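INFO batch 0412 | record 1 of 1 | parsing
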Amino acid sequence: MHVLTLTNSADAPFLNQQVGALEERGVTFETLAVGGEAGAGNSRSPLDYLRFVPEVLREARDGYDLVHAHYGLTAPMALAQVRTPVVLSLWGSDVHGPVAPVSRACAPLCDEVVVMSEAMREALGVDCEVIPDGVDLDRFVPRSRSVAREAVGWSDDEYHVLFPYAPEREVKNYPLARRVVEAVDERLERPVRLRAVHGVDHAAVPDYVNAADALLLTSHSEGSPNSVKEALACNVPVVATDVGDVRERLAGVAPSTVATTDRELVDGLTEVLERGGRSNGREAAREVSLEATADAMLAVYRRAVGTEGAAGRSRRPAAASSSGPRTEA
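INFO prediction complete | emitting tokens
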């Protein structure tokens, strides 16, 4: 099976991990990314997406079995070509944020739609598959906290609370994380340090996760936050707002807290730090291993191109038939 991937974030680690796992299962990929600049404080312009359309149309003529659009704003480009089945993966902000109308308009026209949580499925309001991004259990493994702190340059004389996002990303709600840590710092004798970690090489991320006493997630909304699953895989306690699939992921995991108020976040983080030690999260992380989620995505691919049981959901017009899979993948 040969797949054309469309994305506005070609360097997203979770996307590249998924592609790598599917390549091990016999799928081949070509990736096109939306041009222009995007970062924590800005986004691509409508003109960047308009320029992307002819690029997609030209590339899509090259005999692909499937077009996989990642993120709602790439869906119109995927649907602009009418010969090849389309799988749409939604990431979270494209269902709960300002991009949501585009996602809702395009989802019924795609052959398969993938979301990361039940909450996203309910918000989207169409039939779709729930497949969270997988976590690489070979990379994210529990290791000595002291050794990890030495690797990242953190002191053993403080509590370290990991906030694995750029503070400028409004949806991640850094001001709340700062207030929570300041309140907890007033309660405890040992200093409590909030560590906003972003822009580091993904290979170094497991060191930062293992160096932390806890991961703090204060987001306004999420799909299936990868940082939570990475912390689970490393047995690092998580204190989080009740967003996305966090409550489901943390079911039975201790110590950890899912909070609905600021006070619950403060109490939960205080308890986690006072208790110390690790969580039992790795067992829960096995449910969303990279291998398990890649197998689920491969089943979606096969259904979309008609190589597994019935020939997909047939949301698109009859003219939009596949050119046929190249391999048995």
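INFO post-check: DSSP finds 14 helices and eleven strands in the chain.
INFO record closed
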